[in-house]
Amino acid sequence: MEKFGDIIKSEKPVLVDFFATWCGPCKMMHPILEELSGKVGEKARILKVDIDKNEELAALYRVQSVPTLMVFQNGEIKWRASGVHSAADLEKELEKYY
User: Fold this and answer.
1) What is the pTM of this model?
2) 43 close to 98: Cβ distance less than 8 angstroms
């Protein structure tokens, strides 16, 4: 199983969705991320992190509301936002890092 720290060190941008199963807006993000995955293909990676199962990771990145989305590249946070975002907006953000 890949480790989070190794995944975010990729040169390929990694969009991380910090979510919770009990969160309504988080549930809205699931089909949006599915659509985004189809659009970006192999150019970026999308990773979902359940904050209740990964409390230390959520604390490390100061996730205080869900969903919180972050783009990592080479181990650095390149972009961060909370709330629901459209696939088109997320695609535009990811395109900056291809």
Assistant:
1) 0.96
2) yes
Question: Catalytic residue among 8, 20, 26, 69, which?
Answer: 26
**Residue 74, CB-side half-sphere exposure with 13 Å CA sphere:** 4
Domains of the chain: 4-95 (3.40.30.10)
Catalytic residue among 4, 10, 23, 54: 23
Residue 23 appears among annotated catalytic residues: yes
The answer to whether 24 is a known catalytic residue is no
> Which amino acid would we find at residue 16?
V
Q: What is the pLDDT of residues 8-37, one digit of tens each?
A: 999 999 999 999 999 999 999 999 999 999
